[in-house]
Design goal:
By secondary structure, this protein is an alpha/beta fold. The chain has eleven helices and 14 strands. β2 and β3 (34-35) form a beta hairpin.
């Protein structure tokens, strides 16, 4: 079975990016001229996803519009013989089918995913968080899909190694049986534990493959911390009743959820580009002298 659908929750308020996010969704903040959300969608498309279900809220219409065709702009660029810009714009508008579902109340990640139930139906599907970018030769989502296909379409949680001081910022996966050096049969996930509360350093940065049964658990979990429905609680119930794997994916992950991390990602992306890298190299002596760094 092919996994064709992906859910990307984008309903959050993005308060860490205020005042810019007052009228512009956080996910549309650019890295080198490309909105953050485009990197995430491109990963999904490269993984074989044919339909993106955005879980949105009031004020997030810009995201949906961005992935639509803008025929007026395309015609203008065509008339001006701006073929390079025309290709960029038309590619964005035609890369994937998009569905928008309004999450009228922000009641947690678990609730956001449950909102997609009627569109997903009985198919397995991917979940990608919109402020986590993962770059690599093989897309992270594709790696999780491949593992799921090899294991009877079971659910798979993407994980990465983190340091002791980072443990309390993530959901941490624990398990009892390694199938290989990258694959662990999960027993539970602990939401943002203290470093001394778990020996595991396998963190979940926002890539999942779920079988349809995840909706059964999302429908019965009670509200958790903050009065929200936590995806972690549903995954833990699922892991007690069926096979759930975690996979240490390959690739470079960038957390762009804060201004500080967005800045770091922008610099690293620039250094991967020869044009921008040259500009930075030329400016470093000037910056070093001016700001005493």
């Amino acid at each position: 079975m092919k996994i064709k659908k992906a859910v990307i929750p984008v309903a959050g308020k993005g308060t860490r990016f205020l005042p810019a996010s007052k009228n512009t969704p956080k996910e549309m903040m650019p890295i080198l001229g490309v909105p953050m959300i485009q990197y995430v969608v491109e990963e999904a498309v490269r993984s074989g996803i044919e339909e993106i279900i955005f879980i949105t809220s009031y004020g997030k219409e810009t995201i949906i519009d961005y992935f639509d065709r803008n025929l007026e702009l395309e015609n203008y660029l065509r008339e001006k013989n701006k073929d390079g810009d025309l290709k960029l714009v038309s590619n964005v508008g035609s890369m994937v089918e998009v569905v928008a579902i309004r999450q009228k109340e922000q009641l947690g990640l678990g609730h956001a995913i449950l909102c997609a139930k009627t569109v997903i139906g009985s198919e397995p599907f991917a979940v990608l968080l919109g402020d986590d970018i993962v770059l690599g030769d093989i897309p992270a989502t594709q790696q999780l899909i491949d593992l799921s296909l090899k294991n009877n379409m079971c659910s798979v949680v993407g994980v990465m190694n983190v340091s002791d001081k980072e443990v309390s910022s993530y959901g941490i996966v624990e398990g009892v049986q390694y199938l290989n050096e990258r694959t662990l049969k999960m027993t539970k996930m602990i939401e943002k534990p203290k470093s001394y509360e778990t020996a595991s350093r396998l963190a979940t940065p926002g890539r999942y493959i779920f079988s349809k049964e995840i909706f059964d658990y999302l429908e019965i979990i009670p509200k958790g911390s903050g009065g929200e429905y936590q995806l972690t609680d549903a995954i833990n119930l699922m892991a007690k009743n069926q096979n759930v794997l975690s996979y240490l994916f390959e690739g470079e992950r960038y957390d762009t959820g804060t201004i500080e991390n967005h800045l770091v990602a922008t610099i690293e992306f620039a250094l991967k580009n020869e044009h921008y890298k040259k500009i930075i190299q030329e400016k470093i002596p000037y910056w070093s002298k001016k700001y005493e760094i």
